[in-house]
Amino acid sequence: MNHFNFLTRQDLLKYYSERLSIEDSSGIELEDDSKTFAHAVATCSSIEELKKSTADYVLIGIPEDIGVRANFGRAGAAGAWSAFLGAFLNLQHHEDNDAGRFCVLGNVIVDDLMNACESLHAAHHDQRIQLSKAVEKLDGRVTIVIKEIIATGKIPVIIGGGHNNCYPILRAFNGIAAINIDAHTDLRTASGRHSGNGFSHAIEQGYLRNYYMIGLQENYLSQPMKRLLHDDLRLAYSKYQYDYTNVTEEVQKAINHVDSANYGLEIDMDVVANFPSSAQSPTGITMERLRKTVKEILEMSDELPQYIHICEAAPVYGYPNQVGKALAHLVNDLP
């Protein structure tokens, strides 16, 4: 865990919007005695402490967009973790919305990699190679962190960064299935590393078993990709249809394809129409349909996902608070 930043309670309270009593001129008295998630979620300063925590879900951030840039995408996914914390930590904690099921552990340290890649552009082939090499370094850091969390028996919930991070997450689990709610397959050729080929590398190296995609937009599929999806029985998908509303049927197909007792749930925010993301699109599913799809997956599966990965959100292209709230809703929907 040399490349991990554990967050303290004081770190979390920086995101809390303190409401002082207007009638108290001293600026000491609070407006009321309400508690937010910033006060009530668990924090841990080590993996050993995390093992003793009663939290079910461990939240970690990956504030990077190197993989997105290496895939010719728009930078900005690095800001998702901070936007998420700003919204999530201001949710209200009470008996009907218990913050105790979460531990906000911290974030993978990526500042050195981000700084080294700041001036690199994928349009220059030699610089794209450098971006790819940086993603490989990031892969190593992410795998180590996820392995440590797996050992605690808790469910990691990973926020932020590009979809390149699916590969080191899957590598940490060393052989599970995945359901990916996404407009794209991210099955580009397993050559180099970027946000478009994480699942390709995972399949090629045996870390990913069956793989099902929900909401795939077929107009992005190349002919070789169509052949791959047709020929490889490990792969299956349901395509995006603007007038299709039978979420339960769609989810049932996904559940039937994977081992729903041993799978990870991937959520790429590119799938939502007009959502600020690295590959933002004017067409896609609504935020409400995404939440319903996730809810159906959680309820219909034999077990909860082994991990949940929410990626590609890029607050810089919209209202950061709205992006943060969307991500906070997805996480707080967890049972």
Structural summary, described in words:
The protein is an alpha/beta fold. 37% of the residues lie in helices and 16% in strands. It has helices spanning 9-13, 37-40, 47-52, 66-70, 80-88, 111-117, 125-150, 166-173, 198-204, 223-231, 247-257, 287-300, 320-332, and strands spanning 4-6, 35-36, 57-61, 92-93, 102-108, 155-159, 176-181, 208-216, 235-239, 263-268, 308-311. The strands form two sheets. The chain has a nine-stranded mixed β-sheet, sandwiched between helices. Strands 2-4 form a two-stranded antiparallel ribbon. Strand 8, helix 10 (223-231) and strand 9 (235-239) form a beta-alpha-beta unit. Helix 5 crosses helix 13 (320-332) and helix 8 runs parallel beside helix 9 (198-204). It is globular.
List keywords for this structure.
single chain; 335 residues; alpha/beta; nine-stranded mixed β-sheet
Outline of the structure:
The chain has 335 residues and is an alpha/beta fold. The longest helix is centred in the middle third of the chain and has 26 residues, at 125-150.
Q: In terms of quaternary structure, what is this?
A: single chain
Structural category is: alpha/beta
User: N-to-C SSE series?
Assistant: EHEHHEHHEEHHEHEHEHEHEHEH
Radius of gyration: 20 Å
The profile of the biggest β sheet is: 9 strands, mixed
Give the averaged pLDDT, no decimals: 95
Number of helical regions:
13
- Distance N to C terminus: 28 Å
